[in-house]
Structure formats: structure tokens, C-alpha cells
Write a structure and sequence with these properties.
The chain is globular, with a radius of gyration of 23 Å. The chain has eight helices and eight strands, in the order H-H-H-E-H-H-H-H-E-E-E-E-E-E-H-E. The chain has a two-stranded antiparallel ribbon. Strands 2-7 form a two-stranded antiparallel ribbon. Strands 3-4 form a two-stranded antiparallel ribbon. By secondary structure, it is mainly alpha-helical.
């Protein structure tokens, strides 16, 4: 992260440098979670979280979002799973009547992850709007259904088989209409929900026999000296 930050700053890429800084902050989140929840994180899941935290930086700084078409989908799916895990234990933290029911923890994990998926899309939108990035990637579509194309009020008009689009007299030359982020946003939220749903299902099946987070071991007493 530090090397990528130096390279981005030296290359005059402030948006990439900002992504590096944010990734560095995300690397601390598992430690904060352990402190907040007073639990240890399974080593495999801890490493999974750290690698996931570096994913957006790798995608932007090294163009993996464009070189690997599946990179964005993989990150959002992994994010849905990670957020669901911490959502499960957050339910325990805020539940005041002992141990919450398993179904309640599972639903809280699912909905917590879905909520964070929406928050992340707000961040992507803000970055595109104010920093000139393209986190909400565009999609080429070949049809448009819209009330604005209808001949009468309340009638949906359609443009089908769009092959070419001209903007300000300049042909886009992309073989269709350019959707500026809606499809990407909805796909991201869907795959994050899928990742959360998979974890929720596994949680209900496993019934917490293999916890991802576990109680911290007590410090062994110091041996007394004569």
C-alpha cells in the first residue's frame, strides 16, 4: 500500500493516491473489530479481510478492474460475505438480553451487509462526481425503455436494437447506447447481497459450530516465585 501510494503521488495521480490511503485505513478495520467485539479473528478469515481491503487499490492503481473483467464482481461478492460476518457479531454486541437467537443473527448479518453495499455505492457515486473517477463503470446497452419516449402521458416508449449513438455531432462508435453506471451499481449490490446470503445460509446450516470469531483466550497467570 505504501509503495503504491508513493508511485501514485509521484505520478501525479491524486485519485489513485486517495484510494491507497483509504485502503490503508481499511487494513486496520479487522484490528478495530477485534477490539470492539473483544474477540479473536480466525487467521484464514483475517488474511481474507486484509487481501479484500487491498482489492480496490489494486483494481485502480494497477488497472485490474479493466484487465480482469471478473475483478469487480469478485470484490463485491467477497465484500458481501465479509460484511455479513461482522454483522452477525455486531448483533451480539447490541443485543441486551443475553445471546440473540440464531435466526436474528442471520437476518441481521444479511441486512447489515446489504446496507453497507448501498453505502459503498454512495461512495462510488461521490468519487465519480467529485474526483472524476469511473468507479460506477459504464455499460453498453442496445435498448432503452422510458416514459420520456412515450407519445402520451403514462405511455412507455422504446428504442430497440441501438447500433450507434451520436453526441454533439460525434459518433461514440461503441455499438450501442452508453449507460453511465446504473447497471454496474445494481450488479454490484446484487452480488454483494449474494455473498451475504451465502454466508447467512452457511451460518444457519452450521449453527455456529465453526465460529469465524471466537472469545479471546485468558492470559495465563504468572508463576509465583519463592
Amino acid at each position: 500500500m505504501i509503495v503504491s501510494l508513493i508511485v501514485a503521488a509521484a505520478g501525479g495521480a491524486p485519485s489513485k493516491a486517495l484510494i491507497c490511503v483509504l485502503s490503508g485505513a481499511c487494513l486496520t478495520l479487522p484490528f478495530i473489530a477485534m477490539k470492539l467485539l473483544q474477540k479473536e479473528i480466525n487467521l484464514a478469515f483475517f488474511l481474507f479481510c486484509e487481501i479484500y481491503a487491498l482489492g480496490p487499490m489494486l483494481g485502480h492503481a494497477y488497472k485490474l478492474y479493466y484487465l480482469l473483467p471478473w475483478w469487480d464482481v469478485a470484490l463485491h461478492t467477497a465484500g458481501g460475505l465479509v460484511f455479513a460476518v461482522f454483522g452477525q457479531y455486531l448483533a451480539r454486541l447490541i443485543y441486551k438480553n443475553g445471546e440473540p437467537p440464531l435466526l436474528m443473527k442471520a437476518l441481521f448479518a444479511l441486512f447489515f451487509s446489504m446496507a453497507l453495499a448501498a453505502v459503498w455505492e454512495f461512495i462510488e457515486y461521490g468519487s465519480d462526481l467529485f474526483l472524476g473517477t469511473d468507479m460506477q463503470q459504464d455499460t453498453i446497452v442496445s435498448f432503452i425503455h422510458s416514459y420520456l419516449l412515450g407519445g402520451e402521458a403514462g405511455e412507455i416508449g422504446a428504442l430497440e436494437n441501438i447500433a450507434d449513438v451520436t453526441v454533439n455531432g460525434q459518433p461514440l462508435g461503441i455499438g450501442g447506447y452508453l449507460d453511465i453506471g446504473l447497471h454496474d451499481t445494481m450488479q454490484d449490490m446484487l452480488v454483494e447481497t449474494l455473498g451475504a446470503a451465502v454466508y447467512t445460509a452457511l451460518l444457519l446450516i452450521d449453527r455456529e459450530k465453526h465460529p469465524v470469531l471466537y472469545e479471546k483466550a485468558e492470559t495465563p497467570p504468572t508463576a509465583k516465585t519463592e
